[in-house]
Queue: 4 jobs
Job 1
Amino acid sequence: MITIPLYIILFIYLAYLAVVGVFLYVHLSHLFHNGALTFVSFSITIIIFALAATTLFFTFAYFSNIDWQQPLTLWNNNWITNTLNPSSF
Amino acid sequence: MSIDALLKIKNYEKVVYILRRHGITFFPYVVIFLAILFIPVAVYILFSSAFASTMQNPITYPIMIIVASAYYLSALLFFYAFFVEFYLDSWIITNDRLVDIRQISLFERTVAEVDLYQIQDVSSEVHGFFPTIFNYGDILLQTAGPIPKFIIRNVHRPDKLREVIVELASEDKKFHAGK
């Protein structure tokens, strides 16, 4: 049986957040360095960042009651043995 | 950074127009983005009874939250990427030259320019229902420069812009003839 603690998933999520943050920064710097930071692009940028902040706020609000030490089973031999067991047919 | 600094505007040069594609051409992306935002809500409403037990499970509940959060952040990121690509496609017309800036993808951009006196022929095209209703279309420029053809795509009021470009090109030809 292969198990990992649930917080590994949280670390993967945090790594993904870092990637999203880098890409958002690259997009914003493109707008800035190309002289395209106008009222329209600034407004869209504010809306995108506000929605991203709202998503993160609700995500971490939902996270507050979670026990991250719980084991997450990735592989269990019983899944195969139970499937191949004649009594299961 | 300002447009003047970006283009290294000469002291006698003046920016006349900064053109971008008509805003209505971005509307399909907005519709798709809104649909993508509502898909998880619709799925949840349709299968709420099936989700009830999953939401109680201490393992699947946090995974569902993480997947939903990553989904929404990805949707926002892709929408912003499309917007930036849309917005960075621009054409800058000065009294001396026309600069075509095309943002092909996040890490790919081409910048081309032509002196206005090299423009030989300008034509405008409005094709289709929505372009006719919202008055946007393409302007095609034939030049004597190293890039023989320029296309300014989906800009608002292409007929008026064609006249402006013809007028500016004629003034620039006079200026270069008198040199």
Job 2
Amino acid sequence: MISPLMLRGLWAYRGFVLGSVKREFQSKYANAILGAVWSVLSPLAMILVYTVIFSEVMRAKLPGSESHMAYSIYLCAGILTWGLFAEIVSRGQSMFIEQANLIKKISFPRICLPLIVVLNALVNFGIIFGLFVVFLIVSGNFPGLAFFAIVPLLLVQVLFAIGLAMIAGVLNVFFRDVGQFVTIAMQFWFWLTPIVYPATILPPNVRPLLDWNPMAPLIQGYQAILVHGTAPDWAGVARVAVLALLLCAFGMRLFRKRAGEMVDEL
Amino acid sequence: MGAITVSNLGKAYKTYPTRLSRLAEWMLPFRGARHSLKWVLREVSFQVAPGEAVGLIGINGAGKSTLLKLITGTTQPTTGGVTMHGSVAALLELGMGFHPDFTGRQNAYMAGQLLGMSAEQISALMPQIEAFAEIGDYMDQPVRVYSSGMQMRVAFSVATARRPDILIVDEALSVGDAYFQHKSFDRIRQFRKEGTTLLLVSHDKQAIQSVCDRAILLDGGRLAREGRPEEIMDYYNAMIAERENETVRLNEAADGKVQTISGTGEATVADIALIDGSGARVEVVDVGSAVTLEVRVKVNAPIPRMVLGYMIKDRLGQTMYGTNTHLKDLPLDKVTAGEEVVYRFAFSMNLGPGTYSVATAIVSTETHLVNNYEWRDLALVFTVMNMRRPHFEGSAWLDPTVDIQRT
């Protein structure tokens, strides 16, 4: 999937990759007085909005749970992890186009670009999710050992996102429709995944459709771990893992086959 | 270390009749290709030996930039290939990827990392980078407050912080102020001395002739000519003037130098000579002596306005002096066929010892780009020797009177 040559290129350009991640983080807040505080404030605001609207105004409560806190945790479990997925995919589909100048004029291992996107998304996710974990511990809702089941889930999710991002990123260079399509598709996908609502409120005839949504087992896994402290549905996660590996393999193949042509097209 | 081999290099871009046809080609590969190839570079082969400096010349669109991109590996060749041995630094797009909100120092790190250096390596080189860029406190100001010249200073300093085995330079040096141009050129010369192989793309005659051992002329995506810089530069100049179906002739002189003659031929230089004070033709001239350049022009067809110009060039083809009768306000109007005109330019030979050549141009205005009746390179070759004066250095005779005060 990744050739030794690519790995060597990545290693040689590790300084560039790490530097770019750092710079992108800095550049976002370089001219802001509050600086990096904004990277926390914006997701916090989003969570607040959802919590207030859904849990207070719409009186939504998780079936089988009485506390408002439970719904907020449910919401965060889904929204924060979806945010990681969405950032990789949406930044990934435009990564080659955005860096067109660099790609056209400077010779460097192009595989650095997806890595930078993924690392950036992970940094952003790390900050907000770290805060969330602190909140869980402080409020006494930390699920204990079951929490660490999150690690394999995140791994599968990031792989899945990378696969999609690579495919969308390369295709978008040649067919700009792909980028537009991905943006719209991601919005539908968000609402078709039980993130702000529990799957149980879906009518029974619609619910089997969730089996076709690879994000559903992952998000439900996070919710199971964080809200109920139970293990995710490993069989469902395994199926997504296989799909993720297939997508990555296809994405890398596409990238390696079209990388040369891509430069001419940009 | 430092060799470049370009073999049968070709580059074509795919063009599709419609956007959908690319999709069709991808989806239905068995239905055959639907694109046509647009060739921008074809069958280019040359070698650059370690330590050699080669200039690449060509009009816009001749394929120079594409060739450089292929050599640096930015784009993939359609045919053939490039092999290089040794580390490569390319000064193609200086300041590429500079982020306006970051300081010069931060951008220097970024630029260095794009060259594959680690942060520690760049930190170690930073004092030297700063010293070379000479932008003082601006180094820690955001790049958006920089002038383009300052940006270029930082970019150049980073790109050349380490001596590469191969240095590829694309016209970048024409940016920036004269002082920094000199400074950067000195650095390139220094690298040359230390054994760096150089590939230089430029329209600047001086740059090519003073640095390069050899030049390559690209025309229409093909390698048109390869040879000594003066010869290629002369051919190139002739080629530019050549946009009206004229022919370029090349006469090989006895000493192996190639004389390039181009033009429409309404008038031609029949004879050219240097005459000394006693009226004798000379080929060796003493520094500072009074001479006359005598040019006999034969007119073959009527010319409404005729101007004769000449240029004295040194061994490397750099112009020492040039003027014409338009600048001297002495053009000839309505010259008729069969006429013979003798021009005499009297001057003191205030050049340093060395071999010089004279190029002549018969034109209608101040440049040879409007009407080029005849352009003749190496029309005359002469030698300046220092016979009577104390030794001095350089190619100009700028003898001072010296006044010294001791207190």
Job 3
Amino acid sequence: MNRLRQPDSGTPAAAAGGVSPPLTLRIDGVEVAVPPGTSVMRAAAQAGVAIPKLCATDCLRPAGACRLCLVEIEGRKGYPASCTTPAEAGMVVRTRSPRLDELRRNVMELTLSDHPLDCLTCAANGDCELQDMAAAVGLREVRYGLSGANHLAEPRDDSNPYFGHDPAKCIVCYRCVRACGEQQGSFAITAAGRGFAARIAAGAAPSFMASECVSCGACVNVCPTASLIERTAVAAGPAVRVVETTCAYCGVGCGFRVELNGPPDTPTVVRMTPSKRGAANLGHACVKGRFAWGYATHKDRVTRPMIRARVTDPWREVSWDEALRHVAGEFRRIQRRHGRDAVGAIVSSRCTNEEVYLVQKLVRAAFGNNNVDTCARVCHSPTGYGLGQTLGTSAGTQSFASIDHADVIMVVGANPGAAHPVFASRLKRRVRAGARLIVIDPRAIDLVDSPRVRADVHLQLRPGTNVAVLTALAHVIVTEGLCDEAFVAARCERQSFVDWHNFVARPENSPEALAGTSGVPAAQVRAAARLYASGGNAAIYYGLGVTEHAQGSTAVIAIANLAMATGNLGREGVGVNPLRGQNNVQGSCDMGGFPHELPGYRHVSDAATRASFERAWGVELASTPGLRIPNMFDAALDGSFRGLYCQGEDPAQSDPDIGHVKEALAAMECVVLQDLFLNETARFAHVFLPGSSFLEKDGTFTNAERRISRVRRVMPPLAGMADWQVTMALAGALGQRMDYAHPSAIMDEIARLTPTFAGVGYDKLERLGSLQWPCNDAAPEGTPTMHVGGFPSRPDGKGRFMITQYVPSDERATRQYPLLLTTGRVLAQYNVGAQTRRTANLRFHAEDRLEIHPRDAGERGIADGDWVGLESRAGATELRAEVTARVQPGVVYTTFHFPESGANVVTTDSSDWATNCPEYKVTAVQVRRQTRPAPTERAP
Amino acid sequence: MNPAKLIRMANRIGDFFAAMPDREQAIGDVAGHIARTWEPRMIRDLRAHIAENGAAELSAIVRAALARLPR
């Protein structure tokens, strides 16, 4: 028995929400009370009675296939399977008897007659439920031998880079088939053949890699033998300890168990498995979090500080002390010569809350200005503005679990299957259960029409016209009398509603009037509006396809308007849900990562807030906003910004108009980069400070549902110092003492100074697993659903409607640039790819490609796979084409995961009016077929 | 800082608030938004550009808002 295995009650918990009292039954003489709908197997587990099982596991619906969990029930005939038998009041159950023992031994005997008896050399290394069950049922012999027909010579499938499939070890329990369907929703695995010929197969494909499999690992997770097993587990041997932590990829924030062996100071990660206790993922995972963690110990890691006088000089390794003294000296020199405001910092939303807090404290207290910005600037800053202005709080309103209560789901400018895969599985599950689906996206993403999920309405708008479409939806709701008048009257500002109502009701905002602008037929807009407003609980999920526009903030406001007007706020199943891109986008905004806000979204001009931080930090703080990231680069080019501390970010690949960014970085006198790798920005750096991966530090991340979860150190920092320690030491070198023994002390300070975090602390996180802010005296265990009784952060507690006039982007198709480029992500790669490009995920996605519609490709003589030149007013690059009808005519699409293709060479400086969030989603371009391969270095 | 970019940013802010029914309130909101989100050198450089080249490139609402910003 593997003692590290997560507890397994055999079948899922009964659905919550019922009001029926618990029912009581007796199992092996033990009385137990369980909720109605609980299986006998789960009730037994609750009573401390372990019933043998093979096909049952508590993350899957019971199948009753293996017949090992048979029980006897007084007053009933036969031997029912306990996994599929509901517990009933007064039931008397026996799990052991001579007959049951005999039946179970027979089942096990038959199973083992077609299983290699190689336990001593098997890669399962004792982590095998089949072996456990053989022991549990007391099997002592297999009478049938292995000389008969069997599957022991079936060929292995080692096509997947992360796991292997050995059919010889398969017991055809169907767990993998069910996990792929129920948990992931891919339905890529099937049982081919029937009876003795049955075997697990990757659908009709010859291998896993050739199938619809998305390598989420759910099948591997539930396999009771070593038939499906991680390659790393085979190579590293059994784990001896487990550390629970939080994934460092997307904004879902999955809980993971890092299984380890080896010495504590140089451990080996055996595997990472999704934690059932992870409230955001409930034991599920995706290919990135589950498997793509090898970058953490990749040979490209730089683990010694380095400095150089000029960016053309070779790097020189130095001690931490020398590096930090050098940085402090340079920054102070720049400030003496060019003024206090000539330096600043960028902090990544991949960093922990505690790290972001320290960086903004460093800038405000030691640099003496507010020139700190988080890379959330370039993704979800419009969410902060738009939701703050309307709902009063800069955050999503729901838990992920809320979607289980949604009747209508509207996905706007988001592709969760690629960017938030674990949440996407939950969304798809809800759609399969009957929820209606509206997709608003320029591309036909997989939610629009895939074998198991089909949108009821797809509004395939032209890039840049979100506001037109969202306002047209509002027009229909208002003019067809679909508003929730009672909600609006009770919860919202009357005058703002009247103004908004009058605005959206204008004829020029009708779907018919705006169809020419958006390209969406009016009838489809009307259908979507009616469905959203009258289909029951309606929830909106949106992503960067909303925010990364010149009108990103306006679109967020328009979404909030729709939710308020229809009363879809303040309960489960509804709400406004921004799908945050990176792991700690929410947290980096919460922690004062923006140049105009102190932690908790309080403006720097607020004297009372400033005073509380001044008392705590012992310095006077600047009262005017600092530079945002794009402003820093503009200021660098005019000579007024010359020193940058960049923690965990790669603006020379991730930011728009890279030519401009590189020019700005080259103009600075001291660029300090703190990162795992020498990334693209390192080309312009004078100092390199080694960063630490999420496996090397303690802290917290806050996911898209405001859930604060622990990140726990599983190995010492490879460079000797964790990121929070580096920032603390740099502050010390600058004369600003920071003295924290552990990140928990940083969180304690955050809690003392930030009302919405007042109740957050590591002890409570240990006890409860995670906390959703606001967490304070009013909500000591957090707040899963916001705005239940009103909008407490708004004046008078009333939601505010705002007018959303559509203003076309400056980026428009012209004769010179007739196509509109929009950018996005793929499942296997993550942002600039610094992590995932250093893993076997390259096998799934090895290059960025340009999606182009067959019509546009045909007009240009472009065939699938051709090299094409992509040019905008900002720059030009080259990549290969993928001819596909996923994009509409006139629109092309690419990803930005590879510096070689450099999508952001082409994107422009157009940005959101309120926040300067770049308009990555709309760039006017021309595409031409190239006759030669792309050079390795591209202009500009 | 690049005046053309500052002008474009300011006009974009003006575009949003120009749709509001209360003109006075809208002018105040433009001024408030700039004051709350622009670093002082951005405002200073925009003003310097206007002083030298005039404000013709700015929309009316932005011109009115800039007049309300404290110096």
Job 4
Amino acid sequence: MNTESGPRFEPAVGRYLNLEVAGTPHRIYVEEAGQGIALLCLHTAGSDGRQYRGLMNDDALTQRFRVIAFDLPWHGKSSPPAGWQTGAYRLTSDAYLATILAVVDALRLDRPICLGCSIGGRIVLHLALAHARRFRALIGLESAAHADAYYDLDWLHRPDVHGGEVCGAMVSGLIAPTAPLAERWETIWHYMQGGPGVFKGDLYFYTADGDVRDRVAEIDTGACPLYLLTGEYDYSCTPADTLELARRIKGAKVVIMEKLGHFPMSEEPARFLGYLRPLLQEIEDAGR
Amino acid sequence: MRDALDGLPALANAEPWLIDRGRFLEVTFLCAVGPASYLIHIHRGRLEAVEKGPFVQPRWTFALSASEAAWREFWQPVPRPGCHDLIAMLKTRQLRLEGDQHPFMANLRYFKELLALPRAAVAGV
């Protein structure tokens, strides 16, 4: 190894951003790499922005796109707000939207592409409904208008079950069995590091508050293009769920991804990029 | 394929990391493969015994039941979507979980890894 060439840093740089969301001060961790069209990436429930490491480390992508990922409050290196110790964390549609728009404003992003996975794939539908003109394009990964809880969510947060262990084990099957082991276990590790009750609190949005089944037909893809990509091994948001969503939104473009599950950007970034690149090219070519 | 569970103690007890992961585990659970049932006895993470039914008065803490076809698919080297994971099989209603679920959930990774062990054996790895 050539030690004279200096430390082998990855291109991503991270900083802490101070901002207010609905009047509450927050300290939010933001990471980014690259230059060009802003590509704002939203992590899944109970995880954090590290899920986008594969995108930030892809030279071809970062030569043309400024890839940005922030950790939601309570997640990753973002703090919970002061006073959290006597409250229960529950993500709502309003709070999620307000946080995303506060970050877009604070970073002065001009019509970024927003790409979100799982809860992020849900909130892009809310963005499409309420804030379409603020975005160049929206990309929903593992996106459905609603998801039913298929197990008792209380298992995720109780003193007689280790939260990190159960959250990691619960999501492990959402990763395709073909995923490379290192990426699989990195993805699971992020879940194991989540704060007590945070994954469960996010799933309040995913399984209850964020339900947009009765509104998705109103999405205007003429105002902002919408892409929906779902992995074939995802049993939380299944390919059938996404196909049904796409059927109800005129102009939505849908891709079912082989050998990928619920965390495509993290479980096998190289395979996912094979699906993402043509969409980004299309968005770039549209020059909107 | 039913005999996949007969070979489970040899597979599990050869994995020190799995035994260590289950070191606080004392449980007997029932695993039903179609009409065949097995009682799997675990002591400090080691598989003490696998008893093959039929049983007259089985005693167990929790039970996992699926059809022979569903388990056969689960034990493929690369199972098809929906059969690739215990929770996936629960979601798709192919697996039934009964009884006291606490030891199962508190040791979820252990049980997922344990019951997937026949996969490598089937694949000859």
